[in-house]
Queue: 4 jobs
Job 1
Amino acid sequence: MSRVNNLLSQLQKYKNTRLPKKVKIVEMGPRDGLQNEKTIVQSEDKVKFINLLSQCGFQAIETTSFVSKKWVPQMGDASEVYSKIEKFPNVSYPVLVPNITGLDQALKVGVKEIAVFGAASEAFSQKNINCSIADSLKRFNDVVIKAQQNGIKIRGYVSCVMGCPYEGDIDPLKVAEVTQKLFEMGCYEVSLGDTIGVGTPEKTKNLMQALSQFDFKKLAVHFHDTYDRAIPNILVALEHGIEVVDSSVSGLGGCPYAGKPSGNVATETVINSLNYLGIETGIDREKLKKASDFICGLLNRQNISINF
């Protein structure tokens, strides 16, 4: 009850705050959620999980990642999973691609939207994809060009926008610099990731101010809930004009390179919090519970969302 009461106390502060009437939730469970889970989920179960999520009312579900099975074993069946899921009307199914090889594999199975990752931390970039920020952006530029030639939409991510497990605090101006590069490449939207969950409302406010030159309707936020601060951070972002939030059903997963477990904020917690404030998400909570129960049962883990 203490977590519930603490969250409700935080939400009360925003009852009379100017917030958007609607927020788009990008469901990250099948990709960012599962990639760091030790239990390997079978392909047919991933397909069922994604199909259950598709029934919930999400506009976007990040489906899988076309990465080397050597580095992320959980995503080794990307082509099979994407090919077999039911594609619901008005739902996008973006996939993560790190390089041209990944893009070529994605194109073979008819992917319509991809995501590319940048980082605001040099050390994290080296640990994550074995190259500098500058080199990673050059690599992604080639991916983006080929994707555009094939009529593919591109979403961008910036990792470690609040802090890095190797460098510590990150300069918000560095985040702005990487964000600008991703937009210049042709990303239609850039998601700002607090990869290890060290963000605070004050840090979030500072980041929003550093990004003031951008159209906030083209930005999204991706908070991890390591220290139970994801919801307050999200609300600060919404207060500044953000209208898109990434989250993961049941609080699944996190980044395998983050140095310690740092799970995504639970989709259920986000939806409950927004509903409490009168913000529409379009998500059916009963159908979401069905998807959550299914995946948590497979993983033998507890749903860490906050319900009230």
Note: The chain has a mean pLDDT of 93.
Job 2
Amino acid sequence: MSRDMKKLSGLVAATFTPLTAEGEVDLSVIGPYIDYLTEKQSVKKVFVNGTTGEGISLTVDERKRLAAEWCLQGKGKLEQVIVHVGSMSIKETQDLAQHAASIGADGIAVISPSFFKPTNADALRMFLKEVGASAPGLPLYYYHIPSMTGVALEVADVLNGIEKMIPSFKGVKYSGTDLRDLGQCVCYSQSHNCTYNYLGCKMKEMLSAFDEGNMTQARDLQFKCMDAITFAKNLGFDVAVNKQVMSELSGLALGPPRLPMLPCPISKAQTIAQKIKDTYCLT
């Protein structure tokens, strides 16, 4: 069934997956998590089961239960729920895409397979086409993250003619570092998105200042963000650390990461959280 394909814009929080101390998915945190995002961070769009959410470390059943809970608890609160459905198997990816459509998700995103990798842009487009055909009523986004997948095909090549091949294709979640390739993608399509989690309110302030022509305020907020991120990266800032920092700042019990990632030392997370609070004068 086809549905209106709303344009994805503004801040999109890449959500963490709450786990119990025993490493099991904890759905009870999703409701309070949504309230935190919408009420404290003014963020009403989420990206579920992605890298931040440890999606590839979860079973298909776990991913389905999480996606369903985000859609259920988000009704009337969230504006859009985008579900990452990528996996190593095209059959699993199609199954997750169909499930996302059945629970009322607002879009799906797909990473490239990373064991048997696509050898060129045509192969990747064919993979995306088959996934899109499984949920033709949902907007489809390609999630480009070569640091994790090892697939460094130029996205500009992947985009070439993709709308004719995949009518539901709506954009790219670009998590690469090739600024030339990114620039070509921006030239190809002028729309852009921003992803953030526990500093959503500050990022929204920065974007609003830019839109209003207040470059001084926008630069000040950007430099503060860069200062906090640089501080965190110098201490070692991966998904496990980021998850614990989110717990410290939000008060949500998100639990540990799933193996093979190791838990973050609480002291490190507290140090980074305090830096963020000091940088933005948060209480």
Note: The two ends are 47 Å apart (CA to CA).
Job 3
Amino acid sequence: MSAERFDCHYCKDTLLGKKYILKEDTQYCTKCYENLFANCCEECSLPIGCNCKDLSYKDRHWHENCFKCAKCSKSLVDKPFAAKDDLLLCTECYSHEYSSKCTTCKKTIMPGSRKMEYKGNSWHETCFLCQRCQQPIGTKSFIPKDNNYFCVACFEKQFAYQCCACKKAITTGGVTYQDKPWHRECFTCIGCKRQLAGQRFTSRENYPYCLDCFSNLYAKKCVGCTKAITSLAGAKYISFEERQWHSECFTCMQCSVSLVSRGFLTQRDDILCTDCGREK
């Protein structure tokens, strides 16, 4: 009985006593394996044989001896490298050719290191400092001023106005009243606390009031309707013997005819048109 054959799957040559490669449970002689499956080296274009290391990067392959910097030819095996326009470069060559320089220390910002960028300038993360406290700003918010940069806390301490109501810094949305700064939300009616920013208001004794509160507190009351008379809203009124009426409320107590620009008579506290007055 003959011995079981052990041949190359592709060329059928016997593999007994020879080196072979197993791929997906199928055996191949080294020559067939290289012809069928070996990758071509990006540098020398030759197949990467079974006896060589196959170094790969983004679906590209190199012999170990061919894996080197495209500029200085130093080996990149087990070393950091960077890619530029399909070229592999050692970090020194890449930095010299392409890396940005730190605006503060003027040194190269090495590939892979953390950096800050703002309006075309770059910094090492540890060089991007608040001008006032000299602490790294990192990923925190910052405010530029006069070619310097400040963390928010330092900017508020050094430059921001303080609200005269809450004494906290005003960074956005402030209003000015009597030459004093206020947060919009802090500038409120002294009576009802309604926000006054963007609304009509008036003042008394240097305190701001909305029109409703001012009218209720200080405006004269109409004898006819008992509601406040205020010229702030453009209302016209009639005044007679220390009493006031809205123009539309100044009517005859008897027949309700308007007495504006007409003669009238008084009977105790009543105001009458001349016709109704004569009848009395």
Note: The longest strand covers residues 20-23.
Job 4
Amino acid sequence: MGQVLGCIQVDQSTVAITETFGKFNDVLEPGCHCLPWCFGKQAAGILSLRVQQLDVKCETKTKDNVFVNIVASIQYRALSEKAQDAFYKLSNTSAQIQSYVFDVIRASVPKLELDAVFEQKNDIARAVEEELEKAMSHYGYEIVQTLIVDIEPDEHVKRAMNEINAAARMRVAANEKAEAEKILQIKRAEGDAESKYLAGLGVARQRQAIVDGLRDSVLAFSVNVPGTTSKDVMDMVLVTQYFDTMKEIGASSKSNSVFIPHGPGAVRDVASQIRDGLLQAGQSN
């Protein structure tokens, strides 16, 4: 705003308040205006119509006794049609708005627990805006927007919340790991049981094949060689297998050897032992 020789210039987005001998006279819109000071007229001041922003930080306590700092961002502007009220009725607009914000926040937040404060911050902002709109409209101001831009609990509370969250995640991870190990152990046990079952079947079939082969050999030899008994044929077959086994043990340099009493007189005893073992195995199958 500029004033030269009784003329006044009002800038865009502002209005000028004029007085005559100290009494309110008129509101001047942007442009150039004649203001003859000789008749007692003068410019009392200017009023900005631009949107202004005020950040208010308020400390309060939640329902679960946690102290939090809440930052509310208030966007407001003076109304051109109520410029007289905006200019004369309030001496400190920021302090007035801050008082209303404190009052609403400290009345709303103590009713909510900490988690609910984060979830319902839009409701808190709406309550602040409604209260400010109702109060500031009497003073010629419009509340454009109210935002809750930050909710910051006490540092110790934040650390505790992070530790609780970390502990919960570790507990879930431990449960998942234990479940995975359980599945691996079950599968490993099932595989071991299946392996042992198949190995048992293989041993049983091997023994059955040996018994069947010996039986067929004894029957064929008894038929083809008259005068021989089954016992004679069995002794001969077992002795033959015995010496074949001894030959294989002696031919292998890395085999695990089992030494038993050996001699011409012990052959009949070995044959009897082998025959009795195979016959018992055949009867059990």
Note: DSSP finds seven helices and nine strands in the chain.
